[in-house]
Amino acid sequence: MSTTRIISIVALGLAFLLAGAMHFIAPRSYLPMMPSYLPYPQQLIAISGLAEMAGGLGVLIPFVRRLAGYGLIALLIAVFPANLNMAIHHTQIPGLHVTPFMAWLRLPMQLPMMYWVWWTAIRRDPATGA
User: Fold this and answer.
1) CA dist 30 to 5, 99, 116, Å?
2) Residue 129: which pLDDT band, with cuts at 50, 70 and 90?
3) Which distant-in-sequence residues (6+ apart) come within 8 Å of 92 by Cβ?
4) Considering Cα of 22, then 87, then 109, then 113, what sign does the dihedral take?
5) What span, in angstroms and rounded, lies between the C-alpha atoms of 104 and 72?
6) Is the pTM of this model over 0.85?
7) pLDDT for residue 75
8) Is there a contact between 86 and 100 (Cβ–Cβ < 8 Å)?
């Protein structure tokens, strides 16, 4: 396995672990993003935080890495409505100034995130087949 892929695995795992932990450190920051049509927003914030942390940890464990990768891509798709809701309604996160441009830019950034997950956790290494 290449050094680049090892660094990517560690960075991806830590990024999702940290992102998931933020759901518990500052859960109120996520409430404004939640679409009003979704029930139990606080529980959904906790569930998505746990899913991010589980995926981040899973990426670091070789025998579950691919499964974690598929789960993280599904999670990125699942949270897209919250990101879209934030952009449409120009939602502000307490303590963080988000311009409308930044909120809209976040939407297409989901695709490179999904690619990073795929490249790091799912794709087979052409050199080793693993």
Assistant:
1) 31, 16, 24
2) low
3) 32, 98
4) positive
5) 21
6) yes
7) 96
8) no
Query: How does pLDDT run across 44-94, given as a tens digit for each residue?
Result: 999 999 999 999 999 999 999 999 999 999 999 999 988 888 888 887 777
Residue 96 — φ and ψ, nearest 5°?
Answer: -140, 120
- pLDDT tens per residue across span 26-47: 888 888 888 888 899 999 999 9
Alpha helices in the chain (DSSP H): 3-25, 41-60, 65-78, 80-88, 100-106, 110-117
Burial string for 69-82 (b: 16+ CB within 10 Å, else e) reads bbbbbebbeebeeb
CA angle 110, 7, 57 (to 5 degrees): 65
93 backbone dihedrals φ, ψ, rounded to 5°: -95, 130
Residues in the chain: 130
For residue 47, what are its two tokens? 């569930």
45: nearest Cα among 75, 1, 10, 84 = 75
